Amino acid sequence: MTDFLRLAEDIAREAGDMLLAKRPTMSGEVETKSSPTDVVTILDKASEELIRERVMAARPGDRILGEEGGEAPGESDVRWIVDPIDGTVNFLYGLPDWAVSIAVEVNGRVVAGVVNAAQRGEIYTAALGEGAWLGGERLRCTTGVPLAQALVATGFGYSVRRRAVQGEVVAAVLPSVRDIRRGGSCAIDLCSLAAGRLDAYYERGINHWDFAAAGLVATESGARLGGLHGRPVSPDFALCAAPGLFEELHDLLAPLDPERDA
Ligand code: LIP
């Protein structure tokens, strides 16, 4: 596990340094994906290429799932799950909340995760059963926060039909919580929760590469991560908070039927 974590951290650091160096001149070169607001920059692709090359050089035969390149087949029980830039819109606009996210899964279970929030100068790491860390500091999520006092992060998908429902849902949540944050990077939201900077997070429509590494950071900080009605976290729905607050927020969200699109 330590070897996986060390390798993932070295690679995430190298990708983050490359992105920091090239962003000022190259971030404007974009293509669109699922909708006109869903963008991929030339640097998302360059970052994923770099990560794939480094993983393949060190661990030939492992499988890799990446946001931009899809799944590369392989025989190994080990799969690397890569988001080369989570928070691409922030990256494009020069906002600091974007991250390189790398998780290592063994037999379908994430055992190590690294989130390099390079422009913040923060690298979050976690290993299964061994805790979550920001540099030398062990992370613990907030506990005992009632829903009415909770600072809750969420996000919105790129499709208009999904956003219409997400707007309704957040309008219903807002009067019951301290406040809402929309940071623009699922990975950073989950790491911020692990660091006690947020109390809860929910979102419909995030992908495996968005939450694989940061989800481990959050759970290793003591938070519960799951879907609605006892289901595991998935692109259908992600909810994360300390036990207690998780259930309170779940019971507010579930009747709103937030897994639908308009
Ligand atoms: C983004 C997420 C963000 C979410 C967006 C999108 P990308 O990832 O991290 O929180 O609200 O829908 O999925 O596209 O920047 O990798």
Automatic annotation (TrEMBL):
Top EC group: hydrolase
Keyword Magnesium attached: yes
Keyword Magnesium set for record: yes
Listed EC numbers: 3.1.3.25
Catalytic activity annotation: L-histidinol phosphate + H2O = L-histidinol + phosphate; a myo-inositol phosphate + H2O = myo-inositol + phosphate
Pathway annotation: Amino-acid biosynthesis; L-histidine biosynthesis; L-histidine from 5-phospho-alpha-D-ribose 1-diphosphate: step 8/9
Cofactor: Mg(2+)
Signal peptide: none
One GO BP annotation of this record: inositol metabolic process
Domain of life: Bacteria
Pfam name, any one: Inositol_P
Binding site for Mg(2+): 67, 83, 85-86, 210
Keywords: Hydrolase, Magnesium, Metal-binding
InterPro entries listed in its UniProt record: IMPase (IPR033942), Inositol_monoP_metal-BS (IPR020583), Inositol_monophosphatase-like (IPR000760), Inositol_monophosphatase_CS (IPR020550)
Single GO term (MF): inositol monophosphate 1-phosphatase activity
PANTHER family reported in the protein's UniProt record: INOSITOL MONOPHOSPHATASE, INOSITOL-1-MONOPHOSPHATASE-RELATED
Family note: Belongs to the inositol monophosphatase superfamily.
Function field: Catalyzes the dephosphorylation of histidinol-phosphate to histidinol, the direct precursor of histidine.
Name of the protein in its database record: Inositol-1-monophosphatase
Source organism of this protein record: Nonomuraea deserti
